[in-house]
Write a structure and sequence with these properties.
360 residues; alpha/beta; 5-stranded mixed beta sheet; 12 helices; 15 strands; 37% helix; disordered N terminus
């Protein structure tokens, strides 16, 4: 018997492991390959099945996506668990404002049209955070949500873009300037009443295409958006704030989450840029006091002065630019004081304007 065992060992093929269910010997090197392959498949399946830790809701325009990508990169840099592959998912949500492009915003319900569907997705837990251009966010925030985070603000100025003139002043009388903004329209017509401002909606690329096709002789776009899209080479001139006061919260990105979601609030707390948040709060307090809508040209900008204090400038106007009311405030760069400055400036302009001023 011992000899039989010795003979079998002598003639057995090398690297023989256990037999398969059919009784066939499986070489050990083959077994190792099978085990490794199964392990790799298991890891891949686990990765595919992994649920994102943060789902970012955003509009689908190139600019909105650029802002969502910026948010994603900042989250990954601030939180190591979010730097892992698949930890953050970007979900595109089409809003009513994106679908209806042939009418002025004022005729289809105002700026809330760019946030309503995203807010609904947030409240229904289809997304975890919502990334907005702050100038599109109404002064009211839906119950059940908070907006605790503003990213560092970009350049707030407006850019003049034309293929035929170097500035608004160089445009011949009767030239068409494309803009969907009554704020821009009123300030253009205040200084250049011989120009004609026409409704001009669509994303940045669409507007530049229309300009190139000769639909208008010039257009104005937010410089912040062009910078985020790396398209500043299209800019003809940058308008000074003294000539074109920006929209409320222009250049600021806001990130919202559910009010009961402490995890997301903690993620966002490390991203918040407090100087921007305070400036935006001041400007939005001004807007809320005026009860402004897309039918009323309103502009406002809060910034730090050379002494570190807050300087706020606000404006309301008639759409045709024939009547423009301006005011300013200066005070400590602190939340309560800045919100009060915005409210007080709004009350002043309401009083000066009179009850019929906003009935356009």
């Amino acid at each position: 018997m011992a000899g039989a065992v010795a003979m079998r060992s002598l003639f057995a093929p090398p690297n023989v492991g256990p037999t398969s269910s059919s009784g066939i010997h499986i070489p050990r090197r083959v077994r190792r390959c099978v085990v490794k392959t199964r392990a790799a498949v298991a890891v891949e399946q686990e990765t595919q099945a992994k649920v994102a830790l943060v789902r970012i809701g955003t509009r689908g325009s190139p600019l909105a996506l650029a802002q969502a990508y910026e948010t994603r990169e900042k989250l990954k840099a601030a939180h190591s668990e979010l730097a892992e592959e698949g930890a953050i998912e970007i979900i595109i949500i089409k809003t009513t404002g994106d679908k209806i492009l042939n009418q002025p915003l004022a005729d289809i319900g105002g700026k809330g049209l760019f946030t309503k569907e995203i807010d609904e997705a947030l409240l229904e837990s289809r997304i975890d955070i919502a990334v907005h251009s702050m100038k599109d966010v109404p002064t009211y925030i839906p119950e059940g949500t908070i907006l605790p985070c503003n990213l560092p603000r970009e350049d707030v100025r407006d850019a003049f873009i034309s293929l035929s003139a170097k500035s608004l002043a160089e445009l011949p009388a009767g030239s068409l300037v494309g803009s969907a903004s009554l704020r821009r329209q009123s300030q253009i017509l205040l200084r250049y009443p011989s120009l004609k401002v026409v409704n001009f909606r669509g994303n940045v690329q669409t507007r530049l295409k229309k300009l190139g096709e000769g639909e208008v002789q010039a257009t104005l776009l937010a410089l912040a958006g062009l910078k985020r899209l790396n398209m500043t080479d299209t800019v003809t001139a940058i308008l000074p704030i003294e000539e074109m006061l920006p929209a409320i919260a222009q250049g600021a990105i806001g990130i919202a989450c559910r009010s009961n979601d402490d995890k997301m609030a903690n993620y966002l707390s490390l991203l918040n840029h407090e100087e921007t948040r305070l400036a935006v709060s001041c400007e939005r307090a001004f807007l809320e006091t005026l009860d402004g809508s897309c039918r009323t040209p309103i502009a406002g900008y809060a910034s730090r002065d050379s002494d570190g204090n807050c300087l706020f400038r606000g404006l309301v106007a008639s759409p045709d630019g024939t009547r423009v009311l301006e005011t300013s405030r200066q005070g400590a760069y602190a939340f309560d004081e800045m919100v009060e400055m915005g409210k007080d400036a709004g009350k002043e302009l309401l009083s000066r304007a009179g009850p019929d001023f906003f009935n356009w």
